[in-house]
Amino acid sequence: MPITPVSDLVARAKERIVTLPVDEVRRRHEAGSILLVDIRDVRELARTGRIPGAIHAPRGMLEFWVDPASPYHRPDFDTDRTIVLFCAAAQRSALAVLTLQEMGVADIAEMEGGFAGWQAAGGAVEQPDGSR
């Protein structure tokens, strides 16, 4: 049986999840009404910087950090705010949002375009050396 291309999996996920435009994410992040979660690898953060105020939850640990029954659970995810995930280009985040929906997380979305979209829209980025 051939492997389903990841592009197909991402396209299917995007049909079933909410994708928020960057301008809405920026507005809501500034207002504190969302929990903005960066699921990129630590090497990506070191190389390209971070969105100020976003929490980091590496993709490989995300489900474990979200699950209250997991020994790895992180209280950051005990929130009544909308959780908005992002990765580099909104592919991993689409798959992650779908997985968390399947776990029962109801108020969740991804950011359109990911970190690249944020940067292209002029969003603030904190560099690894702490500068902006």
UniProtKB/TrEMBL annotation:
SMART domains: RHOD. Transmembrane segments: none annotated. Residues 30-127 form the Rhodanese domain. Gene3D superfamilies: Rhodanese-like domain (3.40.250.10). GO terms for molecular function: thiosulfate-cyanide sulfurtransferase activity. It comes from the Bacteria. This is Rhodanese domain protein. It comes from Oceaniovalibus guishaninsula JLT2003. The lineage of its organism: Bacteria, Pseudomonadati, Pseudomonadota, Alphaproteobacteria, Rhodobacterales.
